[in-house]
Amino acid sequence: xxxxxxxxxxxxxxxxxxxxxxxxxxxxxxxxxxxxxxxxxxxxxxxxxxxxxxxxxxxxxxxxxxxxxxxxxxxxxxxxxxxxxxxxxxxxxxxxxxxxxxxxxxxxxxxxxxxxxxxxxxxxxxxxxxxxxxxxxxxxxxxxxxxxxxxxxxxxxxxxxxxxxxxxxxxxxxxxxxxxxxxxxxxxxxxxxxxxxxxxxxxxxxxxxxxxxxxxxxxxxxxxxxxxxxxxxxxxxxxxxxxxxxxxxxxxxxxxxxxxxxxxxx
Length: 266
Prior knowledge:
By secondary structure, the chain is of the alpha+beta class. It has two domains: about 1-25 and about 45-75 and about 250-265, no CATH class; about 75-210, no CATH class. It contains seven helices and 15 strands. The chain has helices spanning about 65-70, 75-80, 95-100, 130-135, 145-155, 165-170, 180-190, and strands spanning about 5, 10-15, 15-25, 25-30, 40-50, 55, 105-110, 115-120, 135-145, 205-210, 220, 230-240, 240-245, 250, 260-265. Strands 1, 5, 6, 11, 12, 13, 14 and 15 form an eight-stranded mixed β-sheet that branches. It is globular. The mean pLDDT is about 95.
């Protein structure tokens, strides 16, 4: 029996337009040929931890077994709340991992998905982080030497801006809006507390990000591989980490990290 390949968040390339691939056991599966075609993804029922690879009956927080959920640095609270990061103090669940991933240059950005969102990511994750969120535009507004500082800026600016993407709004045709990003940057500059002002950037230009989507359904419904192990239909496109099907069903690949699947051939 084919146990399938464990899902991870889709690999994204960017050259004006975003290209996607599934990280399968036998190598990346490019998804561009599937757009406009009938595709079928089948969950085999096998689950494995994205950190240690152990097969389990239940996954936590996007693909971790319970021991890794409580101990792996990738599942630490500072992933979601960067202001709590202590990598710059030589601390964390795994200080070496923290030094390599969090005690490095981070950026604070404003992204546009139909509304303005503030966020944090490593410099090396630009523009992948924005693509994962389905942003059509983004503007870096600050650079800092480590994660916790970025988190402090984000926390201060959450008084003005959302820090989460509204996925239903994102899965619509959204044109980039440079004026909204520039206006939000001005708001951020005027509102940010004085001790963090030194990290602000005033000259960066916005990024425009385009996705290959043939059409956007008027209404979308999220489906789960746990409840619907076989997802099949004509694929209209991909945006963020969502596969968009012709009938309005959408499948969030990242939220199914650790689910083993097989893809029927085209």
